[in-house]
Design brief:
By secondary structure, the chain is of the alpha/beta class. The protein has helices at about 15-30, 50-60, 80-90, 105-115, 130-140, 185-195, 235-240, 265-275, 280-290, 290-320, 340-355, 380-390; strands at about 35-40, 100-105, 125-130, 145-150, 170, 200-205, 230-235, 250, 255-260, 260, 325, 330-335, 355, 360, 370-375. Helix 10 runs parallel beside helix 12.
């Protein structure tokens, strides 16, 4: 008799965004034709930039010509793309080699797959509120999870402490859902903590392109000693609008090893065993993002989303509602008004203002009483949503 993975029974009844989708669907069935102002899931609304589109079209054309046709790609990534990404790091003063870059189908996939490198006996630290997949992926694997609470008191940026000891340390900065960003001193403290305890940091840098304050780090590898204790996972989803195109990259330093096992070499073996690489067409589109023109174009899109953030932050300022994020991240983490719990506030916004956001409780117990607004929507919807929030005063 086949025994299923019984750890799935330990998962919560429904995934956060599935629950939101179900509530939204029920509302629209009761109110057909209603326009919703969607600020929940962090999906982008602007199309891919011209540089990426041109490269994608060119790559499709390549596949129609025998001399330029590409079949299977290298499992760890196209050498030219790995070089381009590594150069992007080196231009910012982070010395990594081309071989330390691995091309992936996106950060979400990689955050789950990377756990193959670690024994199931390894414990995992999750700083809450947290992206739900951190918790769920480790529950599926049967790992012990250590929950470190964050709060308004520490700006949702807790410092390492005795209670934070674990084998794997999840750090997301800029953070999803709170939008908070660790400064250099704070992040260095986590690197020092990991080295002292033999831990490995899984650094989720999916939103690093939104950091506009250059005193703040974009990469964990800007910190001294990080190459001996960290893996960085990044994405083009929010950076360049690749949510539906799917492309990301992971940096695993060759210096990272435990018990004589080198994680870089292990990941090469993992990828060459479990994948056939990312599509040539998609990788060529991603390569264009790192050209000067591609960088100029995606930064214009990021400025647009930050314009949405300013509109929402100005409304919250006028309402006197506490929040963090927005400036260096595409999310605004606000306190629910009038002491509402987060799902009650979700229902209030949906039914009274037709605004869809994300209840903080869905990101862990520490998120209760808070609410996440995404700034990836259209300008028109953002303006109307901000107006409706103000009118509710």
């Amino acid at each position: 008799m086949i025994t299923p993975n019984m750890h799935y029974a330990d998962l919560k009844e429904s995934y956060l965004f599935y629950h939101i989708a179900q509530k939204t669907k029920a509302y629209l069935e009761e109110n057909p034709g209603t326009h919703l102002y969607r600020m929940g899931i962090g999906d982008v609304s602007l199309p891919l930039c011209d540089a990426a589109i041109t490269a994608l079209h060119g790559a499709v054309d390549d596949q129609a010509v025998k001399e330029r046709f590409h079949g299977y790609m290298p499992e760890c990534g196209m050498p030219s793309l790995r070089h381009t990404i590594a150069e992007h790091y080196r231009d910012r003063g982070v010395a990594i080699t081309d071989e330390e870059v691995f091309v992936s189908s996106g950060a979400s996939d990689e955050l789950g797959d990377i756990l193959d490198l670690f024994d199931r006996s390894c414990s995992a630290l999750v700083i809450e509120p947290a992206y739900p997949a951190y918790v769920d992926a480790n529950i599926m694997a049967g790992r012990k999870i250590v929950h470190l609470p964050a709060s308004r008191d520490n700006g949702f940026l807790p410092a390492p402490c005795e209670e934070a000891k674990a084998d794997l340390l999840y750090i997301c900065s800029p953070n999803n859902p709170t939008g908070a960003v660790f400064n250099r001193e704070q992040l260095q403290a986590w690197v020092d903590f990991a080295k002292e305890n033999g831990s490995v940091i899984l650094f989720d840098a999916a939103y690093e392109a939104f950091v506009e304050d250059e005193s703040l780090p974009h990469s964990i590898f800007e910190m001294k000693g990080a190459k001996e204790c960290a893996i960085e996972i990044c994405s083009l989803s929010k950076t360049a609008g690749f949510t539906g195109t799917r492309l990301g990259y992971t940096v695993i330093p060759e210096a990272l090893e435990r018990n004589g096992m080198h994680f870089h070499d292990m990941w090469v073996r993992n990828r060459t065993t479990k994948t056939n690489g990312v599509s040539y067409i998609i990788q060529k589109g991603g390569e264009a993002i790192f050209t000067p023109e591609g960088q100029r174009q995606i930064k214009a899109n990021i400025r647009f989303y930050k314009g949405n953030a300013r509109i929402l932050m100005e409304a919250l300022d006028e309402l006197g509602i506490w929040y963090c994020g927005g400036k260096n991240a595409p999310y605004i983490w606000m306190e629910c008004p009038d002491g509402m719990d987060s799902w009650a506030y979700f229902d209030h916004l949906l039914h009274n203002m037709q605004i869809v956001g994300t209840p903080g409780e869905g990101f862990g117990a520490c998120g209760e009483g808070y609410f996440r607004l995404s700034t990836f929507g259209s300008r028109e919807d953002t303006i109307v949503a901000a107006k409706r929030l103000l009118e509710s005063k």
